[in-house]
Amino acid sequence: MALMITDECINCDVCEPECPNGAISQGPEIYVIDPNRCTACVGHFDVPQCREVCPVDCIPLNPEWKESQDELRAKYLRLVAAGVAKAKADHVTIAGHDGGTGASPESSIKHAGTPWELGLAETQQ
Ligand code: SF4
Ligand code: SF4
Fold it and tell me: How much is the pTM?
């Protein structure tokens, strides 16, 4: 499940820089979380970082966004692939179940590992 910010938010600003996915931003009145970018910190941390720092405990789970751990992980992989692609990498390689992610110029991966298309296909599932 993605998280959400309730109207108890006091605009203290501390959560925004803690989000590894850039999902938190200042809304018209209080801070808001983009559920398309919030992975509940899956892929980065064991616990939601925004919740760890919020002084008024106003960041519950978003009941409108029911997602399994696998779905959150798939969202994380999509965000990583999109971010790396925006950085103009030649290819995106995502390795193994618990493997890392990364981008390389074609020349350095030509004769190594599995085809990059396999990793990219993972991100679309
Ligand atoms: Fe960002 Fe994690 Fe909070 Fe979601 S739970 S908004 S990914 S810090
Ligand atoms: Fe609002 Fe909590 Fe974020 Fe502060 S940490 S801006 S109170 S949601």
Answer: 0.73
